[in-house]
C-alpha cells in the first residue's frame, strides 16, 4: 500500500497527470496514470479512460487515458469524530452570507415571475491548509466510505479533490442506471429524516426531468420508489432509474448533464441564470467524472454446452460516472470549497444559506481538522 501512494507522489512530483479514486462502499483504490503531460479531450464518448467534465457542457471534457492502471486495497478505519463540524468549520464573514442570501432571493424572484421552476445556486469558500494532497485524500477515504472519493491532477488544469454521493450514470454494456438525488437534511444520530413538501417536490422535478429526457433515448425505462439515503453527515432523497441504450452514450450524457439537481429547470434557462448571476466560475464543480468505457473481465461458470468443461471469460464495457459535488480545488496552500443548493418557490433564503454551511462541512472538516 505504501508503494502505491509513493508511486502517486512520484507522479505528482514529476508533474504528470493522474487520478486516484475509490468507489462507494469498496476497499479497492484505483489510480490511472498518464506518462506525459499532454492534455487529452473527450470527442465522442467512445474513448476509454477517466473523464473529468466541467459544469458548462459547452466547454471540453478532459480524459486521462487508461493505459496505466494500478490498484491497492485500502481499508481505513472510519473516522466518526472530528475537531470540526458543520456548525463551526464555516467562518465566512457576514458579507458572504448576505451575498448568498441576496442571490437566493434573486432566484426566488425569477421563479415567482415564471422564468424558472428551480435553480441551483452556489458559492465558494477559500481556506488555507498545510496538508499535502494525498494526505487529504486518505482522510476522505477514512471518513466517507459511502461516497465516491477522488483526487484528480493535471499540470495544465489543476488539482481537484472530492467525496460525492451522487451517481450521474452507470453503464454495463447497453444497460444504464442513473438516479435523481435532491433534498438535504443534516444527519442526527438515531433519528430518521422527516421530509417536507418542498424536498419531495424538488426531488420529483429531477426524477421527471430524467424520465422525460431519456424517454426517446432508451428502452425499458423504469423508475423505482423514493428512498432516503445517507451521505456522511447529510440525508438526501433518491430515486433509481434504469433502462437500455442503443450505443448513444454521448446523446444520453448531453441530455442528462447538467440535471435539475445541479443546474435547475428548465435546464437552459436555469443555466443562463447561473452564468449571469453567480458571479464566479464553477469550473468543474457540478460537472461529472469517472470511468468511461472501461473493459472488465467477467468469468462465467461452465455449462452443459461447454464441452471443454471449463470457465470462460467475457469482456464487459462499463462506465461509472459521478456528479462532482462536495468537492474542492487545490492551489498551492489554498483550498477552494464549492457548495450550493436547489432553490424553488418555497425556498427560505436563510435556510438555504444554512444548507450550504452544512454541505461545506464534508470538505472543510477534512481540510481544517
From TrEMBL:
Database matches in SUPFAM superfamilies: ADC synthase
Domain Chorismate-utilising enzyme C-terminal: start-end pairs: 97-296, 317-359
InterPro entries: ADC_synthase, Chorismate_C
Superkingdom classification of source: Bacteria
Coiled-coil intervals: none
UniProt protein name: Chorismate binding domain-containing protein
Organism the protein comes from: Cellulophaga lytica (strain ATCC 23178 / DSM 7489 / JCM 8516 / NBRC 14961 / NCIMB 1423 / VKM B-1433 / Cy l20)
Classification of source organism: Bacteria, Pseudomonadati, Bacteroidota, Flavobacteriia, Flavobacteriales
